[in-house]
């Protein structure tokens, strides 16, 4: 397998590198040194040969003529996209000379790395990069754009990113897909649920939008955005009131059930209905269905936590399986994420000890504000694995920040993305098929190794390779900055504190391709909460100033415009990835705005009309889709679309850069907008 990249022809194992819970096993077919076909690996125990369209078509992205081949320097204005080819030597020298001057004049904290998980390989996303920026003494990024609020909330209840093993969910009799667009974002959970459905399982979807997942459900429950905690509390109210709780489980494995029993008395069905928009009889029906069906699984998605109250909301939903004792039933319980199951040795990989003194942390969700307002100023930005000009909240401000003439920006990318167009230096990145890395799913329990299948495209280099070059040019002598990719992987896997990784060595992974965590069911057992139990009452939250019991808190004020705007991901893109591919764009057709028929009628809008969606942060032009898929007062779009000449489709121009209640999380779905037929006078 080591020689796969040199082999001209053959079939090679691989893994999907995208930020998707499924982390599919892949088989790559090569002819004459090039990838000709990508399919699912039938021997992967969870993904079993099925993959999504996006990745079946990945070859087109790998060999897209638009892909970057050489380092570039900017010759036009920022954002314009005019560049000239330069050598790697010139690129590295330009960057490091500029950084040395910046550090002399302002200190290393004037430099900010900005990245996310455009490629989920761990050594390329949280390995050599972290080592380098720690040694440099740069400002540190708070990685909060995806699931930070929900993670903190879930941890207060459950002590870590642990839940049901998805493979067990084939046995479930009830699935509650809660704020997750499973059909598009976690397709193998759908496959597992479909198997269970053949044995009589029912599928309930709770969402603000009846999208492809809502249409697949046996019962779709529409809810007003940001009110899910109230619904969960309403279910608890009924479970306690009707004696449908598992008292033995509550006594043995939870703390605070007596306080909770009293606390939820206030969340009667009528009160909850007024908050959530869910009819009182449906709340009762849902609670009884949940109590009377076993095993029952709650699959908790990202939707409810991309809100001002997202942390508390997920903390609250996470309490439900404890009330019915579902954690003791195989296939029952909940899955928010299983990222802690295969936790690697982060300290060995990231080497925080290379950071000599603590540096400031900058929330990635407030990039625009950070670039425009923060003192002392950010003077240089290094972006990789991410496209903030499209994906970050309040994106117009992000772009204003990127326009600053005195900001020295470097972007390491596969494509000249919207962000890369603002760079002073653009570096070409290899794709995951050209790299060595290890991958651990945040949903299933498998870890997998990727070794290069093809040669680097053009002059492109991997993230780890670029940071080794930068370290050398900065004159850094530490061995940690010279370690090879294989050494990085070995150091990360060597983690005696996590017994689930036992036996998962570089050799074993090379030979076996994927290996499963040696994880036992959570109960009987001790959680990593302070009490070791499920914390229905959390003293840790109390200490931090949160209500210690699960609580519904309304969304923040966001002006007085009439609609809550939910700009969610779509089926054929992966965040902004693939939004520059013609085939994927054709499949998505055009960016739509889903509206309720009553709202549309009041505004004189019909399906197919161009509508202007605006607020004080910015505006978009989308195509109206009118019907009953969303409640009145809510508008929904799907997809993070690439810029296109003459069109306004940057949905994040409208999203607030406030921080959620926990984890500094993003609140993409808590912004308000106005909608009007395009072409009218603005504001009328
Ligand atoms: N095809 C595809 N797959 C993807 C991605 C992609 O862009 N495209 N992105 C990947 C990434 S990075 C992530 S984090 C995951 C995210 O995948 P999911 O966990 O599915 O999260 P979202 O798609 O953000 O939102 C899920 C649903 O929440 C709904 N929602 C919004 N607000 C609320 C609310 O207040 N309450 C309720 N109940 N529902 C609400 C939205 O309408 C949406 O249907 O998917 C990954 N997989
Ligand atoms: N409105 C709205 N905005 C959102 C969301 C939403 O639901 N609604 N979802 C949010 C969420 S959950 C997330 S996770 C973020 C994701 O936001 P991002 O992490 O920015 O995700 P992508 O848009 O996929 O961009 C990843 C980029 O990394 C590049 N890349 C891939 N592999 C490599 C590599 O090996 N090296 C380098 N240097 N680059 C590489 C890709 O070419 C791509 O341009 O978006 C967030 N933004
Ligand atoms: S994007 Fe998700 S579903 Fe598609 S191949 Fe990758 S891991 Fe599988
Ligand atoms: Mo994400």
TrEMBL record:
Family annotation (Gene3D superfamilies): 2.40.40.20, 3.40.50.740, ADC-like domains, Dimethylsulfoxide Reductase, domain 2, Formate dehydrogenase/DMSO reductase
Keywords carried by this UniProt record: Iron, Iron-sulfur, Metal-binding, Molybdenum, Oxidoreductase
Top-rank EC class of the record's enzyme: oxidoreductase
Domain of life of the native organism: Bacteria
Domain annotation 4Fe-4S Mo/W bis-MGD-type: ranges: 9-66
Cited PROSITE patterns: 4FE4S_MOW_BIS_MGD, MOLYBDOPTERIN_PROK_2
EC code(s) of this entry: 1.8.5.3
Record keyword Iron present: yes
Cofactor: Mo-bis(molybdopterin guanine dinucleotide)
MF terms in GO: oxidoreductase activity
InterPro entries attached to this UniProt entry: Asp_de-COase-like_dom_sf, MoPterin_dinucl-bd_dom, Mopterin_OxRdtase, Mopterin_OxRdtase_4Fe-4S_dom, Mopterin_OxRdtase_prok_CS, Prok_Mopterin_Oxidored, YoaE_C
Keyword Ribosomal protein: no
Family to which this protein belongs: Belongs to the prokaryotic molybdopterin-containing oxidoreductase family.
Protein name listed in UniProt: Dimethyl sulfoxide reductase DmsA
Gene that this sequence comes from: dmsA
């Amino acid at each position: 397998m080591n020689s796969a990249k040199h082999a001209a022809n053959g079939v090679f194992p691989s893994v999907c590198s995208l930020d998707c819970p499924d982390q599919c096993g892949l088989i790559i077919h090569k002819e004459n040194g090039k990838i000709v076909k990508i399919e699912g690996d039938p021997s992967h125990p969870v993904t079993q040969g099925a993959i999504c369209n996006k990745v079946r078509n990945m070859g087109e992205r790998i060999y897209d003529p638009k892909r970057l081949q050489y380092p570039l320097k900017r010759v036009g204005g920022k954002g314009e996209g005019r560049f000239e080819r330069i050598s790697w030597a010139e690129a590295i020298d330009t960057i490091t000379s500029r950084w040395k001057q910046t550090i002399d004049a302002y200190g290393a904290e004037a430099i900010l790395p900005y990245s996310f998980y455009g490629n989920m390989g761990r050594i390329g996303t949280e390995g050599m990069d972290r080592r380098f920026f720690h040694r440099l003494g740069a400002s540190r990024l708070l990685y909060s754009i995806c699931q930070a609020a929900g993670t903190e909330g879930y941890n207060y209840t459950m002590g870590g990113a642990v839940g049901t093993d998805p493979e067990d969910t084939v046995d479930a009799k009830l699935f509650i897909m809660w704020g997750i667009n499973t059909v598009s974002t976690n397709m193998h959970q759908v496959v597992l649920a479909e198997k269970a459905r053949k044995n009589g399982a029912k599928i309930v979807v709770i969402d603000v939008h009846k999208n492809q997942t809502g249409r697949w459900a046996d019962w779709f429950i529409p809810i007003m955005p940001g009110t899910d905690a109230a619904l969960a509390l309403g279910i608890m109210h009924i479970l306690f009131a009707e004696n449908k709780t598992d008292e033995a489980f509550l006594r043995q494995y939870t703390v605070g059930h007596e306080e909770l029993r009293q606390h939820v008395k206030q969340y009667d069905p009528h009160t909850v209905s007024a908050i959530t928009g869910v009819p009182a009889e449906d709340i009762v029906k849902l609670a009884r269905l949940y109590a009377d069906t076993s095993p029952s699984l709650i699959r908790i998605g990202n939707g409810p936590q991309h809100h001002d109250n997202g942390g508390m909301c997920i903390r609250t939903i996470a309490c439900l399986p404890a009330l019915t004792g579902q954690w003791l039933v195989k296939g029952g319980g909940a899955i928010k994420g299983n990222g802690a199951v295969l936790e690697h040795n982060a300290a060995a990989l990231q080497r925080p000890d290379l950071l000599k003194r603590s540096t400031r942390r900058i929330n990635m969700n407030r990039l625009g504000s950070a670039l425009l307002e923060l003192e002392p100023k950010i003077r240089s930005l290094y972006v990789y694995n991410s496209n903030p000009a499209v994906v970050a909240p309040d994106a117009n401000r992000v772009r204003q920040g990127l326009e600053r003439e005195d900001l020295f920006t470097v972007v390491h990318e596969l494509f000249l993305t919207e962000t890369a167009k603002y760079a002073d230096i653009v570096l070409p990145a290899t794709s995951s098929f050209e790299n060595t890395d290890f991958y651990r799913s945040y949903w299933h329990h498998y870890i997998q190794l990727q070794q290069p299948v093809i040669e680097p495209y053009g002059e492109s280099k991997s993230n780890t390779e670029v940071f080794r070059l930068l370290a050398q040019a900065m004159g850094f002598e530490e061995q940690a900055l010279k370690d090879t990719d294989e050494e990085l992987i070995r150091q990360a896997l060597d983690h005696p504190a996590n017994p689930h990784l036992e036996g998962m060595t570089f050799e074993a992974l090379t030979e076996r391709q994927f290996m499963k965590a040696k994880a036992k069911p959570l109960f009987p057992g001790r959680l990593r909460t302070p009490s070791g139990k499920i914390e229905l009452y959390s003293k840790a939250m109390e200490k931090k100033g949160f209500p210690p019991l699960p609580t519904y808190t309304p969304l923040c004020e966001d002006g007085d415009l009439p609609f809550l705007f939910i700009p969610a991901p779509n089926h054929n893109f992966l965040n902004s990835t693939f939004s520059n591919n013609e085939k994927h764009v054709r499949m998505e057709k055009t960016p739509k705005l889903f509206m309720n028929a009553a709202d549309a009628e009041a505004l004189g809008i019909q399906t197919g009309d161009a509508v202007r969606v605006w607020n004080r942060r910015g505006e978009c032009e989308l195509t109206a889709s009118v019907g009953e898929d969303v409640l009145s007062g809510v508008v929904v779009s799907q997809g993070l679309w690439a810029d296109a000449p003459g069109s306004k489709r940057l949905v994040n121009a409208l999203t607030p850069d406030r921080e959620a209640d926990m984890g500094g999380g993003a609140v993409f779905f808590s912004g308000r907008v106005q909608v009007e037929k395009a072409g009218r006078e603005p504001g009328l």
